[in-house]
Amino acid sequence: MKNLVKRFFVIALVSLTGTLLFIAREQGINLESLLVLLSAITLVLAFILEKKIPFRDAWNNNIGDLKTDLSSAITLILLVEPAIKALLPLLIIAAYQCLNAEYIESSLPFFVQVIAVTLLVEFGKYWSHRLHHLQPSLWWLHALHHSSERLYFINNLRFHPLNYLINSIIGIAPTMLIGFSPDAIIGYLILTQPLVLIQHANIDFNSGWANYIFSTNEAHRWHHSTIPSEANRNYGNALLIWDHVFGTFKAPDVFIEEKRVGLFSSSSCYPASSSYWQQIKSMFISRC
Ligand SMILES: [Zn+2]
């Protein structure tokens, strides 16, 4: 049974989200409620599977970082996400006023819009993520995400609020500007958010070919390596398509026991073991 879960969980999750999106659309079920339900179920499953089939036993132990991770998760869910939801429509209205243009919602079929939104958001998030690695001041924000020295499911919500805000604006705003429907954007989230929520999970999946398409925890593990040539890879949010296009894809080979996750040696003066608030404030101190 364990081997079946390891081999097919990711593929089953993607199939399930796609099927549920189709059914919800056909039956007129509220998509936002479905997104919340799917996300909650995924987090519970991730928590259980980390105990049952961990990739590394040691990564299930709190090494003094749980408070930082929970602080970040609560901040993002209760403050940053609602702020982004309120801010983005205002940004779009302002952009249309500046352009002196009229907003026209796309008349494309729903699932064509979902595919277009998926490609566009993934493109935006890919470049936002890559720029956060290339540009020193952005890296200092993104270092909070990489400062964790273990990978487990809560890491997915360990972000500097500004980093999270920039990712969201670059990823989502263009799709709103073009006029894709809000439901198509939620449809994209239903398809991808459960996958993203297990991207850092300490679960010993063996997803095979799916690792070449989706940003699974096996593929993403390399992105958190302490070796820059390994970590400046697999930037994709839910899909690795743009990593293939722009030459940053790294095949998910076995992440052997000696491999470590965390910051690069060049960022050793980053206050990685400090509290969440101190790490946020570190954007105002001089960088390494
Ligand atoms: Zn990164």
Walk me through the structure.
The chain is mainly alpha-helical and 288 residues long. Helix content is 60%, strand content 0%. Helix 4 crosses helix 7. The longest helix has 34 residues. The mean pLDDT is 93. Zinc ion binds next to helix 4 and helix 5.
Ranges where pLDDT stays below 50 over 5 or more residues in a row are: none
Oligomer: single chain
Rounded radius of gyration (Å): 19 Å
Major β-sheet profile: none
**Number of strand elements:** 0
Shape: globular
Topology:
Layout: H1 2-27, H2 31-52, H3 66-99, H4 110-134, H5 136-146, H6 161-178, H7 182-197, H8 217-223, H9 228-231, H10 241-245, H11 276-281
Helix pairs in contact: 1-7, 2-7, 3-6, 4-5, 4-6, 4-7
Keywords:
mainly alpha, binds zinc ion, 288 residues, globular
